[in-house]
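Aim 2 progress update. The chain analyzed this quarter is reproduced below.
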Amino acid sequence: MVNWYAMYVNRFLFETIHQEFNPSRIRLCNLLYLLTLNQPANSGLVIEMTQEELADILGISRVHITRELADLRGRGILTTTRGKLTIMDLPALVELCTDETV
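Predicted structure tokens:
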């Protein structure tokens, strides 16, 4: 478990450096994609994070996160519930990610 979290944190540090100049939508999509790939077994495409946590990780305001999540919900890419995001259309999410993330 410790090794998984260490790998997870290292990946985020690497991605944070590369994402500094990307727009907020791309940064969010990249993060959601990486979170989906690095989920523990049996969790599927469910990400247990709040909007506040996403905003803190990406260094953008919660207002931007809320707008971007609303857009992704409108596109049918994800659904949100309290403290959880469920990726409904992973290929569509991947199309919004940058090449270095995918």
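The mean pLDDT is 85. The helical segments are 2-19, 24-37, 51-58, 62-74, 90-95. These observations will guide the mutagenesis experiments scheduled for the next reporting period.
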